[in-house]
Prior knowledge:
It is a single chain. About 25% of the residues lie in helices and about 15% in strands. It is built from 7 helices and 11 strands. The longest helix is centred in the C-terminal third of the chain and has 39 residues, at about 335-375. The chain has a domain at about 25-190 and about 285-360 and about 385-400: Rossmann fold (3-Layer(aba) Sandwich). A 6-stranded mixed sheet has the order 2-1-3-7-10-11, sandwiched between helices. Strands 4-5-6 form a 3-stranded antiparallel sheet. It is of the alpha/beta class. Helix 1 (about 50-65) runs parallel beside helix 6 (about 320-330) and helix 6 (about 320-330) packs antiparallel against helix 7 (about 335-375). This is Metacaspase-1. It comes from Hypsizygus marmoreus (White beech mushroom).
Amino acid sequence: MKIIRYRPGRRPEYWGDAPDRQAKKKALLVGIQYERDEEDGDVEGANALRGPHRDVAEMRELLIDCYSYAPEDIVVLVDTYEPGQLQPTRENMLRAIENLVEDARSGDHFFFHYAGHTVQVQNTNFSEEDGMDECIIPSDGEARMIMDNELRRHLVDSLPIGSNLVAIFDSCHSASLLDLHHFRCNRPYVPWISKGKRRSDSQWNANVRRQAMVVSRHVYQSNRVNPSRVKSRRTSIDQILIASKDYKKLSVRTQSLSFKSELEKWYDSPSSPIQRTMSPDSMWPCTGYCEPSSPHEANVISVAACKDDQLSWEDSDGASMTKALINILKTDPHPTIRDLMTNISHDLHQFYLRLHDHARGYRREVREINKQRIAQGRRPLKPNEPPEMDNFQDPQLSSHRPIHPETRWDP
């Protein structure tokens, strides 16, 4: 038997699970509300939020109760003033990310959750499909933001084959915060589209398959039995048929095939004057019809609150995508990827229908108030940010490689 000795200070590498330890489960949860007292002032480039602190607290409970994470293996960064609380500054976040994936081996599970603000900046090296880089804003302000390339380098690139990372981004412009290649092929069909900005990506790419069936969406009606247990009753909404009678197949009269035969002599001739070229390869690997592949790298998926060109909203109580995600996973901790994304999409769609209704009511109130102000010779009020009345928030699932939609959620 050949004995391989390692030099002092050098750790052996393992292609599979390490024989000397059990697979790890570690999590890093970051919630930033950007609240400051009067002396410190506001955080640069960030309006205060209501929900992130509660989001990470509830996510921590979910990981412990449903996925067997040990409390000591979950690190929480929130911008509170409690003694000893580590603040989610740029430096602390990057250090915590490095600690999260340090000594990662095949079979390990890592979980990263970010709830806060994200901004977009112009991309200068043509590495982004939409020409924009996405950046998360730490508690020490926009000037210290962490770009998507940097986030991927620290969180993803060092992971070995067979390790697992799930990342949750509850923020605006969050779909490609890890720059994962596959996202179109992971989208569920939904019976609505966002209008988007004029000539924006959401308009150019929102091609609807008019005769597609939406996957049946399960609705869970819950009655709380005690503080730790929920009794659920599951019902199913019938499948929604998008296709209208107006979109039935049309019978189209075609020309005879003689046109094709006239061209054959040109194409079949070696000296054909018609230049034949191969179609150019796409710069971006995900076409929306990617086939699942065998893992040859780490298993990485990212669930984002919205597309890169969309905003993410929270309600008056601070509830947002994280709340919807947790409610779904409490009922079924291991849904398929398809069911999970379909259910999140429908939950957020209902939230936006209410948001649109409230926005219209708000605009009516502003108009009435301004009529009175103008009649009194006063200036009309102008809201700082126009209320959202048209668009929806489309949650996105991105992955390192194509994944099968029936894959079970297992963070």
